[in-house]
Amino acid sequence: MAIAKYGRVLLKLSGDFMAGESGFGVDPTKVDEVSEQVKSALSNDVQIAIVIGAGNIWRGSASLARGMERATADYMGMLATVINAMALQDSLERMGVITRVQTAIEMHQVAEPYIRRRAIRHLEKGRVVIFGAGTGNPYFTTDTAAALRAMEIDADVLLKATKVDGVYDDDPLINPTAKRFDRLTYIEALNMGVKVMDATALSLCMDNDLPLMVFKLRPPDSLIRAIAGEPIGTCVSR
Q1: What is the pTM of this model?
Q2: Domain range summary for the chain, segments of one domain joined by +
Q3: CA atoms within 13 A on the CB side of 148
Q4: How does strand 180-181 pair with strand 167-168?
């Protein structure tokens, strides 16, 4: 097994990883695939926190186009992330992984409120911590929530799992000649306007010198390899 380069990581997952072929809803089989990777990585003596998006349940942009207020759409998206967090928690705990969900919007019946020191303590005890409800504020994406939580828990790296193996100068799913980058500086990534991470999240990483790795969550050992520091994606750093 590869030796972990990082002791504590924040894994950012798209809600799309929770969905089946339809691209909508929660597919237990797909959730279990993610959980298997997390469980395997934990055996490498690493602490893992997770932030999940909600694109499989709620796309605020579609509702904004129909006239919905931005704040309302964003709050609905935050609530949708909690559904994904609970689904992932259930999957992990069925595999014997002790997991805690903490939410930025308090809902005591289903999750703990986000408390930084408590989250760190959970991690130190070997528990996986899933952060739900984004930052608790509208106008901020789950990418920004991931960068913020990574800094708050003093993570060594922010791992952004995607469906492509890094950052390209064009969409590789459309343009087969698109160039892949092994490394980028924060400024280069910002100037390129990379689609895999929004500018606010990138700026937070840059201001606080938090390394970012963009990688593909396939094959099944991808997370372990990313935590080991293998060059399986694009590293964005100073």
Answers
A1: 0.95
A2: 9-158+191-209
A3: 18
A4: antiparallel
| Number of residues in the chain | 238
DSSP-assigned letter for residue 26 = -
Classify each residue of 8-44 as buried b or exposed e, where b means 16 or more C-beta atoms within 10 Å of its C-beta.
bbbbbbbbebbbeeeeeebbeebbebbbebbbebbeb
Q: In what order do the strands lie in the sheet with 8-13?
A: 112-113, 99-103, 128-132, 47-52, 8-13, 157-162, 212-216, 234-237, 183-185
For domain 9-158+191-209, give the fold.
Carbamate kinase (3.40.1160)
pLDDT of res. 146: 98
Cα R_g (the chain), whole angstroms: 17
pLDDT recorded at residue 4: 84
- What pLDDT does residue 39 have? 97
Pairwise CA distance, residues 206 & 140, whole Å: 17
Low-confidence ranges of the chain (pLDDT < 70): 1-2
Beta strands in the chain (DSSP E): 8-13, 47-52, 99-103, 112-113, 128-132, 157-162, 167-168, 180-181, 183-185, 212-216, 234-237
